[in-house]
Amino acid sequence: MRFLAVCFAALSLGTAAPAQACGAETDCRLGDRHYRIALPESHASGTPMGAVVFAHGYRGSAAKVMRNKSLRRVLSDMGLALIALKSADDDWVIPYAPRHMESDGSEEFRYVEAVLRDAAARFPIDQKRIMAAGFSAGGMMVWNLACTMPGRFAGFAAISGTFWMKPPDHCAKPAASLVHIHGESDPTVPLAGRAILETHQGDVAEALAMYQALGGFRPSGNATANGLTCRSQNNAKGDILDFCLHPGGHSFRSDYVKFAWERLQAAGKL
Fold it and tell me: Which residues pair with 81 in a beta bridge?
């Protein structure tokens, strides 16, 4: 598996000193990388809290994620921290991505592991209550995280993004819980993907089929909620694999992140 080369080594991403101030308006530095974090307004000092680690879209940034007042409000009201990642390039350096066709993703995976360690050192993050979420290119990053480090998160929420080109030949086991949300008429990241430069966006159905087989998921019913029509599956361990569609295009709503968290919570994963 490509990820074995990562070995979660810190390399240049040394953990910054916890005393160094950082937050929603100031970068938390990790060598030449950084992230930002917003704590829930009602959080009592020292009390463990859950968190959503959020991967931005193409040409996004941690600072731009923090400017999404709706997302910050929704998570704050849920008592959750928002940890905003920043890609190594304009886009995430993951397998088959434009201009990064030969990447194995290890640069980004090391970074995410370093963020998780650093945030835990600085803030009282409950390590058993962390969900990875992302939109568009960030959703593609989330699928790669689900394949590479499923044990580091309680679950995953990929919104309008999947693997580039095709699912990986191998993913880490055991599979985790994953909620995929997509617009039926998305022209930017169509469900079947589209060609971009020398590569091609992946087919969502292929990613779901791969993960279904990996985790031994079986159909468990259909449901409609929050403007989403979902096809749900679960496995013997109680993990869930949800495929949820909305009638719109390439769009993000903060409620999608809340919906995914609540789905994981109902399954006993958070």
Answer: 51
Tell me the domain boundaries of the chain: 16-266
Distance between CA 170 and CA 149 in Å, rounded?
12
Is the distance from CB of 222 to CB of 230 less than 8 angstroms? yes
Does pTM surpass 0.90?
A: yes
Residues 16-266, CATH architecture: 3-Layer(aba) Sandwich (3.40)
Terminal Cα-to-Cα distance of the chain (whole angstroms): 28
Q: Are 108 and 101 within 8 A, CB to CB?
A: no
CA distance 156 to 175: 11
Q: Is 239 left (phi over 0), alpha (psi -120 to 50) or beta?
A: beta
| Rounded Cα–Cα distance for residues 70 and 33 (Å) | 26
The span from the CA of 88 to the CA of 104, in Å, is: 14
Those residues whose C-beta lies under 8 Å from the C-beta of residue 197, and which sit 6 or more positions away, are 98, 99
Picking from 140, 151, 238, the residue whose alpha carbon sits closest to that of residue 189 is 140
Please write the tens of the pLDDT for every residue from 207-254: 999 999 999 999 999 988 889 999 999 999 999 999 999 999 999 999
Cβ proximity of 83 and 72 under 8 Å: no
